Structure to design on (182 residues):
């Protein structure tokens, strides 16, 4: 061990990529046997084109047809119990609980303001706060709690609906509740 040894660029890149893999694993909803392309295949007609998605993005309909890990089961069972009559809608984002409650300015703003109060943060980017307000409320409503700092990847159609309502000029990173997306 040498004190003056600087981490190599390769080392830094490898560390970043292993962090990325760990995050990806932590957010995973589908069983390891599931091909990500199969999970991404849109059957709800509301997902953005595959080329605009991230590799691990998935369609809401896949939650009801493919084998899941624990977090996926929690999300699926939450959706089934909260979205009454979901079979009558092609996509979860068409259900009134989503369209008339979670995806409204007032409700997303309320969620954002409570979060800002609890964390002591000030809202600077309003659209971003509204997006995260909606993501957090979705998780609170459908899954109860995930625990502090715990993340889950949300369906591509829901994230897209949120981004269409409260757009940003740029998006980077993961489409999930706790990670910066703009
Ligand atoms: C915020 O969202 C509104 C639509 O809800 C949009 O008109 C506006 O351009 C967005 N602001 C930014 C900074 O992207
Ligand atoms: Zn879809
Ligand atoms: Zn959908």
């Amino acid at each position: 061990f040498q004190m003056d040894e600087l981490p190599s660029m390769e080392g830094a890149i490898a560390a970043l990529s292993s962090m990325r893999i760990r995050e990806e694993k932590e957010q995973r909803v589908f069983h390891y046997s599931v091909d990500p392309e199969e999970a991404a295949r849109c059957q709800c007609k509301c997902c953005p084109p595959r080329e605009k998605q991230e590799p691990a993005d998935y369609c809401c309909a896949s939650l009801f047809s493919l084998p899941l890990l624990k977090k996926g089961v929690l999300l699926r069972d939450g959706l089934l119990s909260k979205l009454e009559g979901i079979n009558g809608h092609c996509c979860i984002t068409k259900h009134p609980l989503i369209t008339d409650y979670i995806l409204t300015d007032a409700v997303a703003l309320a969620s954002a303001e409570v979060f800002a109060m609890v964390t002591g943060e000030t809202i600077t980017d309003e659209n971003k706060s509204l997006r995260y307000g909606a993501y957090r409320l979705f998780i609170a409503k459908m899954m109860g709690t995930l625990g502090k700092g715990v993340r889950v990847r949300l369906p591509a159609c829901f994230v897209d609906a949120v981004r269409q309502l409260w757009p940003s000029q740029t998006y980077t990173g993961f489409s999930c509740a706790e990670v910066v997306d703009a």
Remarks:
- Residues 48 and 181 are 16 Å apart (CA to CA).
- The pocket of zinc ion (ligand 2) is lined by residues 42-44, 46-47, 59-61, 157 (CB under 6 Å).
- Residues 9-26 form the longest helix (18 residues).
